Fold these 3 entries.
Entry 1:
Amino acid sequence: MTIPNEPQITPQLVADHGLKPEEYQKILDLIGREPSFTELGIFSAMWNEHCSYKSSKKWLKTLPTKGPRVLQGPGENAGVVDIGDGQAVVFKMESHNHPSFIEPYQGAATGVGGILRDVFTMGARPIAAMNALRFGEPDHEKTKHLVSGVVAGVGGYGNSFGVPTVGGEVQFDARYNGNILVNAFAAGLADADKIFLSEAKGVGLPVVYLGAKTGRDGVGGATMASAEFGDDIEEKRPTVQVGDPFTEKRLLEACLELMATGAVIAIQDMGAAGLTCSAVEMGAKGDLGVELNLDAVPVREENMTAYEMMLSESQERMLMVLHPEKEAEARAVFEKWELDFATVGKTTDDLRFRVLWQGTEVANLPIKELGDEAPEYDRPWVAPTVPAPIAPDAVPQMDVADAVLGLLNSANHSSRRWVYEQYDTLIQGNSLQTPGGDAGVVRVEGHPQKALAFSSDVNPRYCEADPYEGGKQAVAECWRNLIATGAEPLAATDNLNFGNPERPEIMGQIVHAIKGIGEACTALEFPIVSGNVSLYNETNGRGILPTPTIAGVGLIPDHKHMARKGFATEGDAILLIGAPEGWGTHLGQSAYLRDLHGRREGTAPHVDLDAEKATGHFVLSLIREGTATAVHDLSDGGLGLGLAEMAIAGKIGATIDAADGNPVAAFFGEDQNRYLVTVRAEDAEKVIASAPVSAVRIGKTGGESLKLGAARAISVADLAAAYEGWFPAFMGATIN
């Protein structure tokens, strides 16, 4: 197909589009001719890693995705889970890593915007957002700038749109110096019988473009996100999208109003690869062809080419297939909200994807093969080498009180108040627990008692040492955080962030992490219903830590029986539930070693999934029956950090018994399957006797200081000062 004034297809042009020679040959074999420039762009968009999952699809198919409450699993814009009473929660997590490193404010802002569209495209009104952020080492020259820009972008978009940010993570490590991670999560509420899907149905129906106009921002963004960074990183800035949260808010209201009219047959967010991906996916899912006329697409820049229009990732746009008899009614809705509404094509019965521009056919491709025939690789991989456990006598000793204060005043364990106070955590008026607890909790509007809990977790140190155990642990910790609020964990979404899958050692990490995630989700009845894979997070050959983020949703039937982590009253007994003998033993890859001694040694802790399930269900029963007065799961920093966090949150001290054996292992070991639970003193023995798992009384609440065994007492005021001090001090010199 020859189009006037288009570039000649050369091997270099093919390579610039992220296509390997063998992939280009597959295109030639598939269409029987040389593609036009626009067609080359379409193939690059549909066949890149970000859109096709070509390196991970084989392994993603092994994950559990079904369950009694699952209404929609992976394959749509978001997952859907039944929460009873005719309601459903719709949720997903997705990455905006590469754009956020290049242009932190807009990269993060459009990440939030994109994940919100994924949710309301399904017919849900967004009710909660989270974000999992990972930056380079604090003293790296770019870190403050990136933290400032990303946090401002997340807040700027979410606050303006009007969705509360209820949780998330912020972590620092030198391995993210060249590739930060910005993983955005959103959840919404919908009627369970009014979920909207992207599958087009019916021939000759109008394909309608909705929302904002198309510009040149984000052209090639999905392809950029499917490649490593090099020294030319600044040249990629034009591939970053620009967001407008106020337009998105109008788009939300217009879409929900339109959906209520019955006009919508299918709907797809224009996210990665923009008009190309949305049109192809809608047609292919419905076994239909699609014909687009680009002359009808609303644009905000002059002289845009077909290539630019097809690959633009301008924000706040949707594509729909509508009932033709309701087209006028639909147009009136969007005109009322002052948004573009343009019929840009139609569905056909020939399974072709045709694109017309200025009277010329610039693309004519087999629509099913654009998606179904994308390369799917079984990449070579090598099993990770798991390090030996660290010898007990190799662990440096330290005063327990000094260690607690050191962890509280460190980059990775200090308060994130500086971050989340820039987010609106209370808008919509339903937030019951905001960032800083084990999970965010939001009341279900329209129901007098129900609430939903949200958490996001992963420990990349564990995942590098042992990807299989690290994958299990990410799921288990997310599950524990939901339990700790009194929620029944329902389902999860994942964001699998790794380096270059063409390196067998990285592919081995991916394979083993997914295996661990799958086993944990199966054992804990916590299916994966949506997600995202972000690969090639490398710069000049140096990759990130493997970071398979897990975000989960849980249901609290009656929020009167909701638990918080702060000590509630003086004189309560403190129980350690799920503990090994000696309270804690595992110091390999621990926060104690890394953040206090600069050492990364040993292997990840083992996750006993049967024990996790039994312990979690027991703790949940204590919360539901009103016996537990405070609950906190244990993870990074172990028992010592967990107790300090409970004392700070409750503004009440505690006295903890002396531990048997090594106090460093007891107070800073990161053994899994553990919760701190406080109960009234008179209930303690009954709870211990009824526990189907290990449960020991380790101390009591009270006073103004925390005393850990034989260590000196630390006032709660000093704990809070250490905890709250690091982040503001770090960001004090940030550039506006």
Note: The first strand starts at residue 70 and ends at 72.
Entry 2:
Amino acid sequence: MTANGWLQIAVFCALVLVLVRPLGGYMARLFSGERVFLSPVLGPVERVLFRAAGISAKQEQGWIAYALSMLAFNLAGLLITYVVLRCQDMLPFNRQGLPGLPPDLAFNTAVSFTTNTNWQAYGGETTMSYFSQMVGLTVHNFTSAATGIVLAIAFIRAFSRATAKTLGSFWVDLTRCTLHLLLPMAIVLALVLVWQGVPQNLDPYVSATTVEGTRQTIAQGPVASQVAIKMLGTNGGGFFNANAAHPYENPTPLSNLLQMVAIFAIGAGLTNTFGRMVKDERQGWAILSAMGVMFLAGVAIAYGAEASGNPLITALGVDGGNMEGKEVRFGIANSALFATATTGASCGAVNAMHSSFTPLGGLVPLINMQLGEIIVGGVGAGLYGMLLFVVLAVFIAGQMVGRTPEYLGKKIESREVRLAFLALLVLPLAMLGFTAVAAILPEARASLANAGPHGFSEILYAYTSAGANNGSAFAGLNANTPFFNLTLGLTMLIGRFLMIVPMLGVAGALVAKKRLPPSAGSLPTHTPLFVGLLVGVILVVGGLEFMPALALGPVVEHFALAAGQTF
């Protein structure tokens, strides 16, 4: 580790913190129906869209109607994307003449982008037409991100309102989120990326002659527009197979920094939105502090492990850390930082190959995802996942002191706790269940490039990434088979929607409750003590069930590597 590396990490953290209050305040005003600075331009567009869809901005929905609207919208998007991918050979903007996707891959990809996972069992430049990239995938990058954000807003309203029956309107929230938040930010970031050298065109691929005299095909296309929203919406799906390690997606150290900041910007800002909407910004800062503690711990472990390097190589007198699978233009610090940020934020974009990390370096992304990706988390999903842990932390604290637990004046009772546990137990059920099945099936093990604990980590990482709706890959696993396309697709659906519905059930129960004034026995939920309690609950409740699996994978590989054995 170097001072320069830590300085770069500090600059990233500082930029994210600078954006928290401006973005948080903007989103709080936007979703409260107040006027924002883009209202003069986009307000008329919003009203036209509402009239065309027959939506009233004043009509709200209860939690069941909100959930059904969300499910119907996402089902329609999934089906449309499936048809686009299957029929891309008959659709326009297919300059390379690429065929339609087979049924299992089309299903996996449609589910992946619908659930904000963006798992890719294909090479983008050799599989997807420009039409599929724009209409099928980039559109989903907006809608899936907006879905997560508005669900978080609905959960916030459960705490900010009292004795109410509604959580807002899914259709109104979705429109405002896309039109006033995601679209303007994506346009600005895309223009900056074009300035940095990211292509944005509809030209055919270029054929060039290399210095060795061989022919090379250089892919291009509408890249900047997809990269911008893939980062801002914590989607992560790359236009190219190499994702953010590709020089056309991420050409410079500056573009790398801006993309990492974009990953965290909205998720971190939502904590401030929460504080503002519940009329106590300290609550938002407490949640962000808990996220920050776990994030910095992960960065320190990953950076330290990668900077220490492979002991078998350092024993030969070769120092400089583990550069395998990393881009020289980013280096070890920015590779470890990117890996920690992208897996803590449900993004899935990668600028280095996680399978090439040291065992402890690869352990950090796994734990980040297995905790539910609440370390800032996916846009919206990270906040509502964290609030579910807050409900559990308050409940546990209340049981410890023998009084009814409360959070922001709302009593936390058995119904909310049962639903919160149900939502949080969905992840280990999907991740570990499918991992166990794949680990014993010969047709699944045949897709592995490595044996032993590293091969097990490849399987565990795939289902962890799918269940956490992250989408990053450990590499070394041929996931483009009917078995993996089907089971990973099911894991994505379970990880997304079987967590959302119980979460909205918790919101529906809380919004109807009265708000009680704080008393002498109330637990302060904005103090360092509560932050520590929350982190402890996350690590114990969220992470303990994964320890046996982690022991079989990266932990045992770490000790084997120290003993001179590789896989």
Note: Residues 61 and 166 are 5 Å apart (CA to CA).
Entry 3:
Amino acid sequence: MNESVPSTRRRRGALATAVAALLAALSLPVTGAAAAAAAAAPVPPVPSRYTQQRLAWQPCAEAPDLECATMAVPRDWHHPKRGPDLSVAVSRHRADDPAKRRGTLLMAAGGPGGTGLLRPGSFVRAAPAVGAAYDVVGFDQRGVGRSTRPVCQTPEEFQDFFAGDFRDDDPAARARVIDNSRRLGADCARRSGGLLPFLTTEQTVRDLDLFRALLGERRITYYGPSYATMIGAYYATLFPRRVERMVLDSNVGFDGSWERFQLGQPMSFQRRFEEDFLPWLAARDDTYHYGATVAEAGAHWERRRAALHDGPLVDGALTVGPNQLDNGTVQAVYRASDGFPALATALTALDDWPGASPAARETARQVFGQYLSPGFLAEYFAVTCNDTPWTGNLDTWVARGRELTARWPLAGARTLAFAAVCATWPAPTAPRVRVTGAGLPPTLMLNSVHDPATYYEAARSAHRALRGSRLVTVTGSGDHGQYPGSNACVREVVESYLLDDRVPARDLSCPSPQSG
């Protein structure tokens, strides 16, 4: 935090080296029976009441340009006659030019915990050429939105999870964090009627394949950002012959475990904050008055955090303590164009809350008051705790949390709180899916070099695992989500692939617009 811009840039290589060493030292390899499990875990025949259902399409209430329907799916695809059905909400936007229709493009949402039902509408508005050539369909995956969802905690109960300061390392503070994490997991299990074990990526991709069949499509084209890259990679592994084309945008480490992937995120969020946001903020000191150098802006942010530790800001339903400051900052650095100005405005409002304009206070409420809801985290933890094994030793997580907080505090400080949920979760029963790319057509993967959430190092590892894929590296950028957007190079590569079947001969780079 106390460095100039040139010295910050010199740390990039050191940060990449440090995270590689940390992952090697802290993460547990996925080996033994879990890794050896067959990728295409056998499932019994699907009862005809699922395969012969008809989707009753109607205009979506919130988006009349889309059609919506509800699909019934088994709670457990491996025992489809057991338990109640689940509902999965689905949507579609018909191809604008039926004469040139190339098929169906299915898109999923990130998270885990994001909703995807209404995304086809915004997608085709941003990518009209693709919307003209494809029926673009979406869905709320099991566990979110209009689909069958778990119930964990009320918003009032959930306040305890982010209370206090995750950087505090005294025994009482650690015990409180672990107790809150255990309580969240226990409440999810107690209130969700046995649903939790079936909220997995592997179950979701089987829902997706039923959706494909009900649409009457032999093969689909797929676009997925963020966590949806894992959905896509798992689908491609289980059903490679049913994939026409696939674009994976901002990639999670779908070649390994959730534990390993999440151990790398504190580095990438800190890198984005220190090397991208703070220089941006310092360059605009005339506007935000937060410090004219990276060191000054970083020190200002730390002073504000310390003040919130001693006295959180409380205004009606809004509470901003140090953890909320961290969370809002983490969310805002996903995209520079809208996230950086919103975060800067919110930070200036915190400096003088009574004197801040109503618009600035509202921006602060959006930035610091609406990230990581109990509904979002119910799905997030169900998927990440269920998909792959976790280290259950809490002493290990206390030590890991302490180290990650010391190195990369912005997101490292929450390590114990998040990991303790999965460490105390029932042992996962989901079949292990090992991504290889076998039998899959060439796939496009997109990733920026400073993506804070789906960091480039993990994307490269996933790219090596997904045989035959082409990685498009967006240089000079840290944005999360590359298509559709303003980068003409990315748009040309993706739309040539989707519309003209032109596959890059090899990996390539696209400079970000701001870097020329």
Note: The first helix runs from residue 5 to 26.
